[in-house]
Amino acid sequence: MAYNYNQGPYAGQQQPGYGPQPGVYPPPPQGYPQGGYPQPGGYPSAPQPGFQPPPYGDPYGGANQGEAFPFNSNNAHDGYGGYDAEDPEVKGFDFSDQSIRRGFIRKVYSILMVQLAITMGFIALLCYEPKTKAFVHNTPSLFIVALVVMIVAMITLACCGEVRRKAPINYVMLFIFTIAEGFLLGVSASTYKQDAVLMAVGITTAVCLALTLFAFQTKYDFTMMGGVLLVAVIILLVFGIVAMFVHNKIVQLVYASLGALIFSIYLVYDTQLMMGGKHKYSISPEEYVFAALNLYLDIVNIFMYILAIIGHARD
To answer: Region Disordered: what ranges (predicted)?
Structure first.
């Protein structure tokens, strides 16, 4: 039944909220979006101040069922799937924290000092104890066994992340590696004269100390040179194989000098990886055994190449 606007107190006036034609009651809505909804101007494409979208409910039938989607008053800061990026249990430790990084550096250098002390003990024993030196030189099987143990322990620590991160197995494997490597280094150093070994130890100490201070103070980022250093080590390996068959003092000196230079840069590279902070790449504080292993190998290689330079120069 039509309503006549010409009757009643509002006769002849257009009523607010109804159709534009007076005298005819607007037809009932036939469903969204027909029947007068949305309002003139279109349904707003983005939430406006004071506007709330219609309660569609959670289309996935989850915990948000019956609430306005995608807004959730209870989980307003949750990300996709309810993941809270600020949850410390999800985000994990902040390894950029300076206190954590300083504790990590102290732990690495403490382990490194123990490794170097063990190594220097083997070098001193095999260089200054004639009976032990003679026994080792007359028993080549000890060298072979130590070499195999060293290779197995190094591959285990380098490739098995669970082993080098889990105490105490990581300390045990590192101790075994250090014993084997110290014995091999002592046997190799015992083939040189004692004063040459002492000179190599002094030069290595000075070089490593200077490079470590340089790595801590310099503004240059050496952590981006990983690929270049890998190529340099491969070239050095090929050069070393060639030098084995070329018995020339100049070739041996060049090879030893290149080796000392490359591993000196490696020492700076590994030191900055350990430091983290302003550098592009860094080692996780969980990898303290791996960081100590890297620094130890760098120092050992620098010492052997410097000793080779002194030995070939004297010959």
So the answer is: 1-68
Q: Where are the alpha helices (DSSP H) in 92-139?
A: 98-128, 130-137
pTM for the model: 0.67
Helix (H) or strand (E) holding 205: helix 194-217
pLDDT value of residue 88: 35
Are 269 and 234 a contacting pair, CB within 8 Å? no
Model pLDDT, residue 259 = 92
Pick left, alpha or beta for residue 193 (phi over 0 → left; psi -120 to 50 → alpha; otherwise beta).
beta
Q: Which residue has tokens 């989850």?
A: 62
Spatial separation of the C-alpha atoms in residues 106 and 103, rounded to whole Å: 5
**C-alpha 40 chain-centroid distance:** 57
CA atoms in the 13 A half-sphere facing the CB of 148: 5
Residue 12 is which amino acid?
Answer: G
What's the Cα-to-Cα distance from 249 to each of 113, 257, 315, rounded to whole Å?
Answer: 34, 12, 8
Asked, as a colleague might, if the bond just before 168 is cis with ω within 30 of 0, I would say yes
Distance of CA 179 to the CA centre of its chain: 28
Q: Which amino acid is at 17?
A: G
Among residues 158, 151, 186, 173, which one has the least CA distance to residue 300? 186
Furthest C-alpha separation in the chain: 129
Q: Looking at residue 32, what DSSP letter applies? A: T
Q: Are 196 and 310 in contact (CB under 8 A)?
A: yes
Strand, coil or helix: 302: helix
Which residue type occupies 279?
H
Tens-place pLDDT, residues 255-291? 999 999 999 999 999 888 887 766 667 777 788 888 8
Ramachandran area for residue 147 (φ above 0: left; ψ -120 to 50: alpha; else beta): alpha
